[in-house]
User: Which sequence fits this backbone?
């Protein structure tokens, strides 16, 4: 899996202070997307073991109480990302007690493959749906357009 950005301290992508990881690869390529540079799977750089270790350490660092992990992109549920994302969210579940996991995807909850569903079973909140420029609403919290739905899962 390739990533574009990792923010160890983020207050924009979900509630509270969070760690946020932007992955590469998106099949949806929504008109008006603010993150077009993440569309290609081979863009960005590989997510290394060292970066994963740092993410886990950051989530567990009590000097900056973080509420959880946010996964965005690109699309964390892109078929090429699913195995790595699943491994990561399972590790966060296991090693970062009390942290929630939010994930943004252009896929719809009811249309996910079995592999994508396995990831969703591990997270707390899924924000689904493609960004629709004609439904763009800057007043929405944690969504870009009004068709996108916040699913509270756990």
Assistant:
């Amino acid at each position: 899996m390739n990533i574009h950005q990792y923010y160890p301290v983020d207050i924009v992508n979900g509630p509270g202070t969070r760690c946020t990881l932007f992955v590469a690869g998106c099949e949806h390529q929504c008109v008006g997307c603010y993150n077009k540079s993440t569309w290609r799977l081979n863009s960005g750089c590989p997510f290394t073991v060292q970066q994963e270790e740092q993410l886990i350490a950051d989530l567990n660092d009590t000097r900056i109480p973080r509420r959880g992990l946010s996964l965005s992109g690109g699309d964390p549920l892109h078929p090429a990302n699913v195995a790595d994302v699943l491994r990561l969210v399972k590790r966060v579940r296991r090693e970062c007690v009390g942290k929630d996991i939010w994930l943004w995807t252009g896929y719809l909850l009811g249309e996910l493959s079995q592999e994508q569903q396995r990831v969703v079973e591990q997270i707390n909140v899924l924000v689904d749906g493609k960004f629709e420029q004609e439904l763009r609403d800057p007043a929405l919290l944690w969504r870009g357009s009004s068709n996108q739905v916040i699913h509270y899962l756990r």
